[in-house]
Amino acid sequence: MQEEINVNKLSVSYYGKQVISNVSFSFESGKLIGIIGPNGAGKSTMMKAMLGLIPRDSGEVMIENQPLQTIQKKIAYVPQRSNIDWDFPIIVKDTVLLGTFPKLGLFRRPKKRDRNWAIECLTKVGMEKYAKNQIGELSGGQQQRVFLARALAQKAEYFFLDEPFVGIDVASEEVIIRILKDLRNEGKTVFVVHHDLSKVKNYFDDLVLINKKIISSGPVEYVFQPKLMQKAYNYSLSMMESIGGEV
């Protein structure tokens, strides 16, 4: 399979200070890819810059040999929960229904089949019985499941999730990673900003290891190595052993 996701020399600055510098990597489609690195490494910034959500100083992102903006409807993005206004008055099923809007086109309203599809996506994440609840009434894990259902409703080919496992219960994390693996098995490509190194080997096929710049990228067994992790995190070898790194 040819490489279908290419990031080339991506750099981003905030207020004149460079946050990520000259980031480049390539991956085949149909992979579950973890973006890891220490706090402040630029993981979320890199994801947002890839998606064109924040300005870039330089660099380009090509998917299917096309600029990202030309295949925008094939992309679903789940932001960090801390960036969402949970007081906004909207019920769960309508939140998921928003995922159908990009493919509806201008001035078209959702039809019965779109509403049925939204409920089907809620069912996939085990949240159908909460369909009429206000989104703000849910726990953190439940909210994260609903936003994954919204992403599923988009029928996307490429999924980008920013810290989906932060502040959620174990049951929700298990549901979410199962669905992400199912998407991968269906040939979808999934990028996940992730912080828990103990789960890396079990969750991902490939990794992007970043600390302002790319430390390494590629298969988990290649990237998740003591010398590379030490370089990114300044961890000792004994700490690497405790999180499952091979010494």
From TrEMBL:
Q: Which GO terms describe its molecular function?
A: ATP binding; ATP hydrolysis activity
- Provide the alphabetized UniProt keywords: ATP-binding, Nucleotide-binding, Transport
Cite the CDD domains for this sequence.
ABC_Metallic_Cations
Name any one Pfam family assigned in the record: ABC_tran
At the top level, the lineage of the source is: Bacteria
For whether the record's keyword set contains Ribonucleoprotein, the answer is: no
**InterPro entries xrefs:** AAA+_ATPase (IPR003593), ABC_transporter-like_ATP-bd (IPR003439), ABC_transporter-like_CS (IPR017871), Metal_Ion_Import_ABC (IPR050153), P-loop_NTPase (IPR027417)
Q: Which family does it belong to?
A: Belongs to the ABC transporter superfamily.
PANTHER family according to UniProt: IRON TRANSPORT SYSTEM ATP-BINDING PROTEIN HI_0361-RELATED, METAL TRANSPORT SYSTEM ATP-BINDING PROTEIN TM_0124-RELATED
What protein name does the entry list?
Answer: Manganese transporter
